[in-house]
Amino acid sequence: MHTPQDDVTSDELEKAGVLVTSIEFIYNWGRSNSVWPVQFGLACCAIEMIATAGSRYDMARFGAEVFRPSPRQGDLLIVSGTVTKKMAPQVVRIYNQMPEPKWVIAMGACAISGGPFKNGYNVLKGIDRYIPVDVHIPGCPPRPEALIHAIMTLQDKIRTERSIVEKDRSNPAYGKTSREFPVPVYDGHDLKPPFNPDVWKPPSMTV
Amino acid sequence: MKPFDIQPLTQRFPFVHADAFGNALIVPAKNLVSIVEWIQASRLYLCDTLSNVTGVDFLPKVIEEEGKDSEGNSVKIKKNIPGYIEVVYHFYSIELKRGPLTIKVRSNGRDNVRLPSLMPHYRSAEFQEREIFDLYGVYFEGHYDLRRLLMWESFEDFPMRKDYVPPNDNEYEPIASRHSGGDA
Ligand code: SF4
């Protein structure tokens, strides 16, 4: 995206003490530097997420240290760990309860694809089957640096998004309506539906 | 911890015998509660702790045995061994610092498996029996609150049984062919 900061003239103006910017830039700058994650851990990856928030790795340097205990106050869902099929409806429900705009980081092999438990009967094979994921981090578990990298990637994404002008909006997160994703229900053998076709399509297989 | 001497138990209950490896006692289901009451009270055992309850699934199988037909020729005779679910208990005595005493109970067949619950005698049996009910489908009679522990209430299968087929929700991994009749 073209921001006034990229502009040579605005740089020159800045040197002269004049700041020219856009509302959108200010919004995105503010949003990207105060991402508030929902305090929510699922499995072993959550330990790395906790370490990332701790003083050694210090996620606070990137403005993302305020882990909110309520989804109503968070705008980033870090799916940190194995999503069991019993847990999946709750994860979707927590995501639905977060106010817009909201983002999702799928942390670790489990949250991306089921990971080492992929062939288990009780493990959801990737949270992206039900909710849209912005950043995937591979690893089992990903190191805290990887989570910080994911947050920085997400910040880059937020900074380049068109969020103000309605017709330019690429991300439905900035829409006026709050999105509701269908919560899967428990069925006799599996979750129903097994995935949300609006969000995820099974990859076509060529043998 | 020293192991128990099982001699007094097998003397008291002569129908109890050790399994093929000699480290567990196989107990008929109808006698389980009386034996457990005895090892709980007997000064020789004083089993105050039920540390572990688990299940094992044995599928029905066909074995071939040497035999004679009506004319006296030696032939191979096929024998059907029915399947069963085995529930294994590990008892310890903290008082005597001894254990474990391993007791196995076998069910009659694999459908509608009913076995006595040890929950009235050992509170620690509560969740473990619920887990076995959840994963192996053993109905423990006398359990106060027999619900699924890990899977959801409306789940119908018993996933740790050997003939359980999980839902095929893989994308395209080779394992996906296993459930559609491909290579095992
Ligand atoms: S990806 Fe690895 S570390 Fe993370 S939740 Fe799964 S098993 Fe645990």
Protein described:
The complex is a heterodimer of chains A (207) and B (184). Chain A has helices spanning 8-15, 23-33, 44-53, 88-97, 108-113, 144-159; strands spanning 76-80, 103-107, 135-137, 185-186, 191-192. Chain A is an alpha/beta fold. Chain A has a single domain (4-192), classed as Rossmann fold (3-Layer(aba) Sandwich). In chain A, the strands form two sheets. In chain A, strands 1-2-3 form a three-stranded parallel sheet. The longest helix of chain A is centred in the last third of the chain and has 16 residues, at 144-159. The radius of gyration of chain A is 19 Å and the shape is globular. The relative contact order of chain A is 0.15. Chain B is α/β, with parallel strands linked by helices. Chain B has one domain: NADH:ubiquinone oxidoreductase Nqo5 subunit (Beta Polymerase, domain 2, 2-Layer Sandwich), CATH 3.30.460.80. Chain B is built from four helices and nine strands. Chain B has a five-stranded mixed sheet with strand order 1-2-7-6-3, covered by helices on one side. Chain B has a two-stranded antiparallel sheet with strand order 4-5. The relative contact order of chain B is 0.15. The model of chain B has no long low-confidence stretch (mean pLDDT 87). Classes of the chains: A alpha/beta (207), B alpha/beta (184). Chain A binds chain B through residues 86, 118-122, 125, 186-190, 194-195, 202-203, 205, and chain B through 150-157, 159, 164, 166-167, 169-173, 175. The structure holds iron/sulfur cluster. Iron/sulfur cluster binds at residues 43-45, 81-82, 108-110, 115-116, 140-141 of chain A.
